[in-house]
Amino acid sequence: MSLFDNYFAFATTVFMGLLAIVNPISAIPVFMELTSYMDKKAKRNIATKSVLIAFCIIMVFSVAGKLIFHVFGITLAALRVTGGILVFVIGYEMVRSKDEAVQSQKLGDQPVKADQGISVAITPLAMPLLAGPGAITTSMSYSAAKDLTHLAIVMAVYAVICYITYLLFIAGERIVRVIGTNVMMVVTKMMGLILAVIGVQMLALGIKELFNL
Questions:
Q1: pTM, whole model, 2 decimals?
Q2: Residue 109: enclosing H or E segment and its boundaries?
Q3: InterPro entries from the xrefs (predicted)?
Q4: Residue 38 phi/psi, 5° resolution?
Q5: How far is 197 from 86, CA to CA, in rounded Å?
Q6: From the CB of residue 142, how many other CB atoms can be counted at a distance below 10 Å?
């Protein structure tokens, strides 16, 4: 019973930590903005692939993160800098008003097929939003010093968070209908500003670590 309590406490700690870092609710406006031109089938496809890719990224880094960093000469600071730049660009694009006519010229009037726009599922949805430097670092930290059972718990917990994120992505349109498009627009721009600030913070932290400031 004591062993079960320890595992349960560990799972709870991991869940709360990863949930706070991933923050799937904050990713809804980003998903809605990036898939606004897609039909329902394409949106579901992007939602599915984004969470699957994010899960695979976390699994790989949890199992062999230190080895990958060592082989390629990658530092966590460099990962923070790159992730910070990406997050800032995403936030900037969300804050900046977009002309729908320009979008339609680029994308055409036909519904987007499921395979189109898949790059959105990889970047920025899967990484750095769902599996960014924070989530990677946290999962590596929880997995590195523990046994295989704890590693399995970390993976299971992140899988639950991915499923929650998927449900929120799919329910995005219903959420918009409930709160209204104007409110959603305000939330999107607010989240864009927050993402831009987070990106700058990640970039500053990465630069500080790179140059040992």
A1: 0.70
A2: none
A3: Multi_antbiot-R_MarC (IPR002771)
A4: -95, 155
A5: 12
A6: 21
